[in-house]
TrEMBL record, chain A:
Entry's Gene Ontology cellular component terms: cytosol; early endosome; recycling endosome; trans-Golgi network
SMART domains named among the record's database cross-references: PH (SM00233)
Pfam families: PH (PF00169)
Span of domain PH: 15-108
Name recorded for this polypeptide: Pleckstrin homology domain-containing family J member 1
An individual GO BP term: endosome organization
Gene: plekhj1
From TrEMBL, chain B:
PROSITE patterns per record: PH_DOMAIN
Subcellular location: Early endosome; Recycling endosome; Golgi apparatus, trans-Golgi network; Cytoplasmic vesicle, Clathrin-coated vesicle
Gene Ontology biological process: endosome organization; receptor recycling; retrograde transport, endosome to Golgi
GO cellular component entries: clathrin-coated vesicle; cytosol; early endosome; recycling endosome; trans-Golgi network
SUPFAM superfamilies from the UniProt entry: PH domain-like
Record function comment: Plays a role in endocytic trafficking. Required for receptor recycling from endosomes, both to the trans-Golgi network and the plasma membrane.
Protein name per the record: Sesquipedalian
Keyword DNA-binding assigned: no
């Protein structure tokens, strides 16, 4: 499978608020905990060997489950397969919480849900579809999940 | 760099919504011929394979930091994904409508774009809630100043946005929601917000620093409490009214 690797590597080098050295352990039985520079950029989690410029790998943070394992460790499970569980050891409970939070919020699907929520609510409160001014009201990706289009409401009676 | 293909293919095949799919022609880099491929756009990922039912995924393009450009010079219905300093993917549709539809979808596909949009809508939502509560038109100019969002003109121009790009927000004004009678409103305002004074600065409203994405429940609880408190005050003041001479009340709220 081909992918735009160079562009993705370039993406991994962009500044990120969530970048730290964590202990990381892969899902396979033989995998041991290794120190990695873990970096969250858009909905990808990149991991580097310390001081290397190119990441070892990129994990897409969609359809995954992030959980707290213990006070300083969190896990990410992909494909709903317990065998594909990655463990990350943090330096503190606070840091651990921050990472869990950030990873959840980085998911595109999570953001989409929020967008739909705001769109629906703003329309309910103001009678206007906030996406109209951006010319993207009919984009499939922003549709209310039950498939109903938001129709402008007559607010003259209010 | 390893991209963990199985995670990508799993995401492609799972039940989350497909944003767009269809046949497009993709130009081969080497010999400049076009090959028909089945494209699937999901989130900020553009997958392609030979046919819709194919299990074998040919490739994926991560749509971050690329510009979407119409390239009429290449062909009538041609467009491209330009990664500045890197590769350009040249694509073509079968007709004008298909091309326009794809261009539009790809323009709003990046994670950065969605992130800005969600933030902008989040603020609009908070503003709308405040306005509903206050019943006054908001002085919203200062509320928009921090956030930049691509204007429709810029979107048409065809750039997807990296976090570093900054553009002017179209100004957003909410209309006053005059839901309550002025008399009742007057009374409520005296307890809650300064009467006839400016609304507190955006930074002074409670919950401003609360990331709305963090916990919707908290947000709803907060507003629920506000409503409850206002209702109690209203009940209390109504009781006081009934005890007094109520000649002056123009509106009976029984």
């Amino acid at each position: 499978m081909r992918f735009n690797e160079k562009e993705l590597v370039s993406l991994s080098r962009q500044p990120s608020e969530m970048a730290a050295e964590l202990g990381m352990r892969g899902p396979k039985k033989g995998d041991v905990l290794k120190k990695r520079l873990v970096k969250l950029v858009v909905n990808f989690l990149f991991y580097f060997r310390t001081d290397e410029e190119e990441p070892i790998g990129a994990l897409l943070l969609e359809q995954c489950r992030v959980e707290k394992e213990d006070s300083q460790t969190f896990s990410i499970v992909f494909l709903d397969e317990a065998e594909r569980k990655y463990l990350f050891e943090c330096d503190s409970e606070e840091q651990c919480g921050e990472w869990i939070d950030s990873i959840i919020k980085a998911s595109y699907e999570f953001m989409r849900k929020n967008l739909i929520f705001y769109r629906t609510e703003i329309h309910r409160l103001t009678g206007k579809d906030p996406l109209e001014q951006y010319g993207i009201s009919d984009e499939t990706r922003f549709q209310v999940s039950n498939g109903l289009q938001l129709m402008p409401r007559d607010t003259s009676s209010l | 760099m390893k991209i963990h293909k199985k995670i990508l293919t799993h995401y492609l095949s799972c039940t989350s919504p497909v944003d767009k799919e269809g046949y497009l022609f993709k130009k081969k880099e080497r010999n400049a011929t076009y090959q028909r491929r089945w494209f699937v756009l999901k989130a900020n990922l553009l997958f392609y394979q030979e046919r819709p039912a194919d299990r074998h995924l040919l490739g994926v393009i991560v749509l971050e930091g690329c510009a979407v450009r119409r390239s009429e010079s290449e062909g009538q219905f041609a467009f491209s994904l330009v990664f500045e300093g890197f590769k350009t993917y040249r694509l073509a549709a079968v007709d004008h409508q298909t091309k326009e539809s794809w261009v539009k979808s790809l323009l709003s596909a990046s994670h950065c774009y969605l992130s800005l949009l969600v933030r902008d809508l989040g603020r609009q939502y908070e503003e709308a809630k405040q306005n509903q509560g206050s019943g006054e038109s908001s002085s919203s100019a200062h509320m928009n100043s921090d956030l930049f969002f691509p204007s429709t003109a810029a979107v048409r121009e065809g750039r997807s946005f990296s976090a570093g790009t900054v553009l002017q927000t179209p100004s957003f004004h909410t209309k006053a929601m005059a839901r309550k009678s002025p008399k009742l409103w007057h009374r409520r305002n005296a307890h809650v917000t300064p009467l006839n004074g400016p609304a507190p600065l955006y930074g002074e409203w409670p919950l401003v620093d609360l990331d709305p994405l963090e916990d919707f429940r908290k947000l709803h609880d907060y507003y629920g409490q506000e409503v409850k408190r206002v209702r109690e005050e209203w009940m209390r003041s109504r009781q006081e009214e009934e005890e007094e001479d109520s000649d002056q009340d123009l509106i009976y709220l029984g």
